Structure formats: structure tokens, C-alpha cells
């Protein structure tokens, strides 16, 4: 059964300048995420991936369409409704340097969502050790400050914070793109391990199809605000139905330098003939 259902979602922003037309960042997007599943949302920069995640979180304006969570409509949720949802849907952002308050200790960062949800301070503190353990950090990390950690360790803290309320769904918005390759690999393994242990679902946003294929059950490919392809990871990455998916696969890293050059040239040739119609005529 689907946990999250996005149906015909449109997010439109007002145009900049007096006569500029509104800009459609998300254009009739339909997709769903089932319990315990990872859906990868992949596409080039500006295709609307983050905006889809933000609309689910109530942070982007829904112009039309529906978003349902566990059967209930959430696209027009009140503040109280949103607060209740916060325990069920959490988010991990791209940049672990800006998403954690450097002036707070890790214990405070991890207790904050629990206290906000009504747990007493002592009870919230009591859960910190377990949360650190779940993301592979030592218990003495609790008394240190986020600024004392590496990018990968900070992202572990951000993941622990997202897990604090035992959510059913975590929106991961480019959670590894600010990290070096070996740290990326460790964080992706951690996310997989957490999913195996808890049955959590992920909507995993990334520009990198190589990262997405690593952990997604299904993959949606976005281009210029639209989902151009949505299918199982195997279908989308082995038998892509859309030329743009092929393009993304071609752009993912390959070891052979000759193939790399061939791919670069094909990419350049495509870019020369390709203009985003959402931007045409906009001032
Ligand atoms: N608040 C806003 N006001 C106006 N336009 C916006 C706003 N937020 C996003 N956009 C535009 O919507 C489009 C989609 O942005 P979005 O961040 O969702 O893309 P993305 O696929 O996640 O790209 P990236 O990987 O670079 O973050 C972009 O062209 C962006 O400039």
C-alpha cells in the first residue's frame, strides 16, 4: 500500500518582474512511495526534485493536485496537522554544514525534536545514546558540538535527528552530494541498514543516477518539472524508456576514459540543441 501519493502536483512560482509569466517548477507530477520502499527522484539541476519534496513537507505552494499521506490529504494541512505529520515525515538536507546549528551540542540537536513533540527533557536526553548508536557514532559525541565533526559525521547526526521521532518516511534531499566518495558510500550503507532494521521509507532526491540506483526500489526521472519516467530501478536503469534517462545514465561516472570522452561529446551535442521551454520568453 502507498504511504505517500502525489497526484497531478503543480507548483507554480510568481514570475520575477512585473510582466514575467509565472514559473512552473513542478508540472503535473504523479508518483507514490510505498511502506518500507525507497523511491529515487532523479534529474538534472532545476528539474523540480527538491520542490516536490518541499511540497510534501508543506514548504512549497501547491497550485493544484493532491498529496495524500497514509490515505489522508495533506496538501492543505493546517499548522496543527503539519505538526502531527512531523513525527511521521522527516527530512535530511544536502548540506550538513548549514542544516545543524553549530552552537548546539549534539545532545541538544537530537533532543530538540523529541522535546518539541512533548517528551520531557530528561526522557529526550535518555534517547540520545540510542540514536547515536543507530547511526554509528560513539556515545561521547553527545557532548560535542556539530562544528567539531567532519561532513560525514555531521550527516550521521542529521540522520539521527531525522530518526528521533521514529518516522515512517524520510525525504532525503541530496544527502550525500556534499560528501567525498568513500563517505558517500558509508552514508548510503547506513541509510540501507536503517531501512532493513526499521522498515522506513525514503524519497531519495539526487541529481546522480549512480547514487539513486544504489538504494532505490523504484526510480522517477524528472525533467523540466515533469516526471518523464517512473518504474522499477532495474527497468529505468537497464531499459530506460526515455532519451533523457539514457542521457543521465551516460553522464554517470565511468572508469574508461575513452567512454568518458565519448559521453562528454554526446552530452555537449545534446545541450547545444536543447532549451528549457519553461524559461522561454521569461524575463
Ligand atoms: N521559491 C522559489 N521561487 C521561484 N522559483 C523557485 C523557487 N524555488 C525553486 N524555484 C525554481 O524552481 C525550479 C526547480 O527548483 P528545484 O530546486 O526543485 O530543482 P532541483 O531539481 O531540486 O535542482 P537542484 O538539484 O539544483 O536543487 C528551479 O528553476 C528553481 O529556480
Automatic annotation (TrEMBL):
Instruction: Give the family per the record.
Output: Belongs to the ABC transporter superfamily.
Q: Which residues form the ABC transporter domain?
A: 4-249
Recorded protein name is ABC transporter ATP-binding protein
Enumerate the PANTHER family for this protein: D,D-DIPEPTIDE TRANSPORT ATP-BINDING PROTEIN DDPF-RELATED, TRANSPORT ATP-BINDING PROTEIN
Which keywords label this protein?
Answer: ATP-binding, Nucleotide-binding, Transport
- Residues of the region (Disordered) are 255-283
Q: Name one GO molecular function term.
A: ATP binding
One Pfam entry name: ABC_tran
- State where composition is biased (Basic and acidic residues): 272-283
